[in-house]
Backbone:
């Protein structure tokens, strides 16, 4: 009962603080573009908090620690891949993408390649990745409700989806996500420190089980797949599987729509770079704690489902009021993580889809958000319980195979043609879909390729994109040099050069909507 | 590794560019960009920085993967949880790599801006482009108020040098607010 009360109070605090964080900002949004981008004036560290919440979501908050408890330290390769993914994002993508002035990945593709067809394909992949991520969040949140109140998973899913719909269309998601990120981080740290203290001080009592053999090894066995059938698409814990995870995470992070779109809230490319560095610092902090829960979970909650381990742990280690209070706090933290992650996804993907299909506007966003949530609720029944982190990795694999080549080549190679871009994205995404499907239905038919799809699909996508672009030079958009200048030169110098402005003429702020390529 | 002013100017002097891409040629827009060499030069430097950073990342990951294959390597100093400790504490290394990359990338942009500013000041009287061809006549004296000033609004301007926001103080962006925007 104490856990329920504490968690209700914690959730109320999350909602209250989010509302307070939203209030001063909402007044500023005179236009739709301002609504989506928080007026493009968010400081790096604050935007980094919002970006960080995109990956330290409920699925990761609960799933990572649970998988460490079940499968041991080989799971720690996952955070390594994510952190490296941000370094790659910083190195290759973030500043040029911000300077391009495109709000969403679809807008970037349309602007860079001048092709509506490319935009359609990118929008399709954004929708797919968004749905996969949303399913992961909803599944994790439903697991929380199941532990806390014994609610059936379908009821929990519907309840949290309704909450996401309400919160996400209220706007000012950057502030809300940033606040929720810090709340979640504080709760995660407090819980880890308290449980570690209970363990070291002997309050926790004897462990329920010994850690399994091989718990602390760097690799697991080939075929040891965390997270059910979809886990095959995320890689197993063998060295090749780990390499698959690293490739998917390192190259897929740049293709996550709800992460990439956040950088447009920065004023310019310079601050977008600083934002990524701040995100890395926050991730370094965040990833200190899941291993603590994982080790303690392996000792005190053997056999617990991965998604629920963290929430069961405090009561098992510290019976009585302290454990109940800790459980309530962790529930509130998971709720904050869930809300931040889910709202970011639905606003991003909903904005992309609504601007493309429904012409944008708040009504279109509301309709799209509702449609996304309904679709996610329907699709979630197709995946096995406890696979939230695996869904995240699956989304990363799709992003790495389909959107990473488009971004890297679009930013750094003038010769990318629209035909090549479409062919490469379809080849990469198709390879992931085909290998995953075959690995689930007929694993012997695809062999190792089915277990390590990213290792196959990413090179295929790059090769097809390069090869087809090389043989279709007429489909290279005109003015690609101007686009390169816009993406790579510092903002005001790019204007000076591109607009042939007299030196010292009126400065143009690239953060203004004058160079905005997003649809309005 | 920086963008040299001479490099910028020499590229511009070629007039047509290096022809290194399918889109390179009359009519595709590239020939109409004055100072197109600025972009090529900066892109080359940024590409070198990016490749160097990625090489460090790949080397680091390879070392991690390789070390993990050596039996007992991670346990040697840290006990049975050596691998856990190692993979948890390895993250700051990526942060250091990222910080170094940002510094290098910003330095390259700063150098380019300085080069452009120098040429801009010399050409201010004629209203020439920042990276105009050096074959042009010698510039006249700089005209007050017509210099390039802080052409980038980024690492080259005083706000950045002081760790402030780009364009701080000039356009009201210094506190995360758009010019004229509601508070």
Residues:
């Amino acid at each position: 009962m104490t856990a329920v009360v504490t968690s209700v109070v914690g959730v109320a605090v999350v909602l209250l603080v989010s509302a307070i964080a939203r209030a001063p900002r909402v007044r500023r949004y005179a236009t739709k573009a301002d609504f989506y981008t928080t007026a493009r004036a968010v400081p790096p560290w604050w935007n980094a908090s919002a970006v960080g919440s995109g990956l330290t979501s409920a699925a990761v908050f609960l799933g990572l620690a649970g998988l460490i408890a079940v499968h041991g330290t080989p799971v720690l390769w996952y955070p390594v891949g994510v952190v490296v993914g941000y370094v790659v994002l910083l190195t290759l993508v973030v500043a040029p993408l911000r300077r391009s002035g495109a709000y969403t990945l679809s807008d970037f593709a349309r602007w860079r390649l001048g092709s509506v067809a490319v935009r359609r394909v990118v929008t399709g992949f954004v929708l797919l990745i968004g749905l996969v991520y949303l399913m992961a969040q909803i599944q994790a949140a439903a697991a929380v409700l199941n532990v806390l109140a014994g609610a059936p998973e379908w009821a929990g899913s519907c309840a949290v989806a309704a909450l996401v719909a309400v919160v996400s269309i209220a706007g000012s998601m950057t502030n809300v996500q940033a606040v929720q990120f810090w709340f979640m981080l504080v709760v995660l740290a407090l819980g880890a420190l308290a449980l570690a203290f209970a363990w070291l001080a002997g309050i926790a009592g004897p462990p329920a089980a010994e850690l399994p053999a091989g718990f602390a090894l760097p690799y697991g066995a080939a075929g040891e797949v965390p997270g059910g059938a979809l886990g095959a698409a995320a890689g197993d814990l063998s060295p090749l599987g780990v390499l698959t995870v690293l490739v998917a995470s390192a190259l897929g992070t740049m293709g996550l729509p709800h992460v990439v779109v956040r950088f447009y809230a920065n004023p310019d490319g310079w601050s977008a770079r600083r934002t990524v560095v701040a995100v890395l610092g926050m991730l370094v902090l965040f990833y200190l704690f899941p291993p603590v829960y994982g080790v303690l979970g392996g000792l005190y909650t053997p056999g617990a489902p991965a998604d629920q381990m963290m929430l069961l742990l405090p009561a098992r280690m510290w019976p009585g009021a302290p454990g109940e209070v800790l459980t309530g706090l962790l529930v509130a933290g998971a709720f904050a993580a869930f809300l931040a992650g889910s709202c970011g996804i639905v606003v991003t993907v909903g904005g992309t889809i609504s601007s493309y299909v429904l012409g944008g506007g708040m009504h279109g966003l509301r309709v799209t958000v509702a449609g996304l949530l309904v679709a996610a609720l329907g699709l979630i029944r197709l995946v096995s319980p406890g696979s939230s982190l695996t869904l995240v990795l699956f989304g990363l694999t799709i992003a790495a195979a389909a959107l990473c080549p488009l971004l890297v080549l679009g930013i750094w190679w003038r010769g990318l043609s629209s035909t090549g871009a479409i062919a490469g994205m379809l080849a990469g995404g198709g390879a992931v879909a085909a290998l995953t499907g075959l690995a689930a239905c007929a694993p012997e038919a695809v062999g190792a390729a089915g277990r390590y799809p990213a290792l196959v699909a990413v090179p295929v996508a790059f090769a097809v994109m390069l090869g087809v672009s090389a043989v279709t030079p007429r489909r290279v958009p005109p003015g690609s040099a101007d686009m390169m200048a816009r993406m790579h030169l510092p903002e005001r110098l790019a204007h000076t050069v591109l607009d042939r402005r007299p030196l010292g003429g009126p400065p143009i702020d690239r953060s203004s909507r004058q160079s905005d390529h997003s649809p309005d | 590794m920086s963008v040299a002013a001479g490099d910028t100017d020499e590229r511009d002097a070629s007039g047509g560019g290096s022809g290194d891409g399918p889109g390179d040629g009359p009519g595709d827009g590239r020939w109409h960009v004055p100072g197109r060499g600025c972009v090529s030069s900066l892109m080359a430097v940024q590409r070198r920085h990016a490749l160097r950073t990625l090489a460090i990342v790949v080397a680091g990951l390879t070392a991690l993967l390789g070390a993990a294959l050596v039996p007992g390597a991670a346990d040697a100093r840290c006990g049975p949880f050596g691998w856990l400790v190692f993979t948890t504490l390895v993250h700051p290394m990526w942060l250091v790599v990222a910080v170094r990359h940002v510094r290098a990338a910003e330095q390259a942009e700063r150098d380019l801006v300085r080069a452009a500013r120098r040429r801009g000041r010399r050409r201010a009287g004629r209203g020439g482009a920042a990276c105009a061809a050096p074959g042009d006549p010698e510039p006249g004296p700089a005209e007050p108020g017509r210099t390039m000033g802080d052409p980038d609004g980024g690492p080259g301007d005083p706000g950045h040098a002081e760790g402030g926001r780009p364009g701080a103080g000039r356009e009201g962006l210094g506190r995360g607010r758009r010019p004229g925007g509601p508070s």
